[in-house]
Design goal:
The complex is a heterodimer. Chain A is mostly beta strands. Chain A is built from one helix and eight strands; from the N terminus they run E-E-H-E-E-E-E-E-E. Chain A is 4% helix and 55% strand. In chain A, the strands form two sheets. A four-stranded antiparallel β-sheet of chain A has the order 2-1-3-4, with no helix packed on it. A four-stranded antiparallel β-sheet of chain A has the order 5-6-7-8, with no helix packed on it. In chain B, a hairpin with a 2-residue loop joins strand 8 and strand 9. Chain B has one domain. Classes of the chains: A mainly beta, B mainly beta.
Amino acid sequence: MAIWKAKTKDGKEVSEIDSSWVDNEDNITDLIMITDSHQIIQLPKNMEKYVQAKTASAELGSNDIQIESRYIGFKLGNNTVRIRVNEKTQNISIEVD
Amino acid sequence: MSLTLRHNDIINVNTESTVFTQSMTFGTLASGEVSQAIIVSLNVPDVKAIAHIKLGLISIGNMEFNNEMFGVEANNELAVNYTPTEYFQGINTDGLSTSAYNIDISNRNQNSSAYVYLNINVPLNNIPDTYVLRYKWFFDFAE
């Protein structure tokens, strides 16, 4: 399972293991993701706004969800840059929209 | 991770009650017949918000696909006898969120999708058949 780790404006180090993204998302200055294959994805520091989420799926007839992929990213002007890690294959892709 | 989902509820427009179901059937339809719409909605109450919601058609049984057959339209209102005017343009054969054939669905609120109206327009010259389809929701969330 890939996890995100971040530094906040007050210098604190937080991660998916011990903290909530929702509680920290407005105070992040540095964000990385560590993949299952031990690759580290490092985003530029001190961006105005960082994003992080999981993309899940759910089929009819099941109350289970599957995490398909996870991403970290940042806002750049009117665009959002996302670095996505596929949960099964660990493939990494870059999206800009 | 454990999330509470109510993604597979089918909504009765008259009572606004929901029904859990393992399959979605439009019953037996004749050639040229347009089915009544079935309304579905995704609801994920355990997270702050869901975003980038999509719906993919992943199976149509033994039917032959055409791009004016599987009606789909999102709407924030519940309406009686509403007929979707847009159609799935293909089947999501890989089951992934990146399929170009997934339909973007707006949010009705932070934790729920818009109501999605689904129906079937049976082509002329089809023999009467029972129409069953499967679909899959995709969405982003952060905790």
